[in-house]
User: Fold these one by one.
Assistant:
Number 1:
Amino acid sequence: MSSKKKRVVILTGAGISAESGLGTFRDKGGLWDEHDINEVATPEAWYKNPKLVLDFYDQRRQLCLKANPNDAHLSLTKLEKHYDVRIITQNIDDLHERAGSKNILHLHGEILKARSVMNAETLYDLGLKGIKLGDMAPDGHQLRPHVVWFGEAVPKMYEAEDIVKDAEIFIVIGTSLNVYPAANLIYASPTKTDKYIVDLNELTNVKYKNIKHLKGNATQKVPELVDRLIQESKI
Ligand code: NAD
């Protein structure tokens, strides 16, 4: 007799990749301490100074290529044998892929891919190469990073909501839940869904009573939670 696997939805943010050496977003010493968001991660920045934007993402791309998945990314792959696991990540790195996770939805794009400024659908793998001004897509238009900038729509949001509405377990890892609309995803999960938040800090902006906060490093707390969930799946 085959029983359906429970669905586990995992929303990850910059914090899961912090211990792989990739800076987070808002933490002290994070990316935006060094860069003005408006100068590098908005459509206005692109029109004003595309070279600066391309240089910024090229730096992110090179750091991503040097980083490796950590124990948090790796442990999540173990859940797949026991659960129907769906990862929704705000991260633009490819560390979930390299860890071996299968169902990954990138809400905010992927740093190792490019697209034409005129076509958001067709993606090109960058491999080891960055994008330079003058690099054209086959449609004759400038290539840009395949990332969602602040002020742009998040086209994968509907797909993400669809995944979340069937969550039986919802795990949030390493995100301050400050970037919308992604931060709303936790509210798209059913009320009875078991919810966990793994973060260095207690997130006071989440208004659910039945959330279990696992405070600490992702590389420690995520493997512990994974082991616990695997045990529970056998009961
Ligand atoms: P954020 O910086 O706002 O929040 C990071 C969260 O992770 C914080 O709550 C922090 O307490 C927690 N954290 C930091 N180190 C941790 C650790 N070792 N273990 C557990 N928790 C830890 O990041 P966010 O909420 O993901 O905000 C988002 C935006 O920044 C996203 O859109 C994302 O695309 C972008 N971003 C991506 C990357 C990446 O791809 N690796 C890196 C930086 C920023």
Note: DSSP finds ten helices and nine strands in the chain.
Number 2:
Amino acid sequence: MLDADFFHRWMIATAAAVDREADRLTELDSAIGDADHGTNLKRGFASVTAALEKEAPQTPGVVLTLAGRQLVSTVGGASGPLYGTLLRRTGKSLGEASEVTAAQLAEAFGAGVAAVGQLGGAQAGDKTMLDALLPAVDALGVSFSAARDAADAGALATVPLLARKGRASYLGERSIGHQDPGATSAALLVAALAEADTAGGEGSGS
Ligand code: ADP
Ligand code: MG
């Protein structure tokens, strides 16, 4: 079972990965955007970490809704509301339980990813974060490490795509040949699930 501690570890591991990869995310965004994705997310997840430490929420659902609210209010840009929606909807879908199963998390994360699609109007293949998130949802039913591998592959597969949503879409054909920054950060979020699982010691989700 996955408790509030697991979800807290997930968010901390994501913050550490975003911090580590911030320069790379910004570099990717400088090729097909406005060079702020790493800075945006670094600020956002630092504020998530601070809020979680201060409020120490006691259920998985509240950990994620709190994290999502922080992202909405601190990240800005396109990705702030989208990541905020992802975590808030996932958290809301988990309800008030103090522990959830990996299957419940997979289902809730699927609802969160669907909400990202609704908010941003993007579909698979549009060269957005969804290209990492959608394959991760499918693979989450198998294991966290399968989800990580699927998200990584999805992010890599954005390179040859033409951007159809967000700032990169303004570039048209010139967006081809670059990896999408949001798909790259989404893969970090998914990889952090596997890290949180290992750090818990029980291997509860995979
Ligand atoms: P901005 O584009 O406002 O500067 P960021 O640089 O923080 O915001 O984030 C850019 C990322 O947001 C893109 O790489 C893409 O993955 C994601 N994104 C942009 N628009 C959408 C959308 N409509 N749906 C899903 N993801 C999107
Ligand atoms: Mg940007």
Note: The two ends are 11 Å apart (CA to CA).
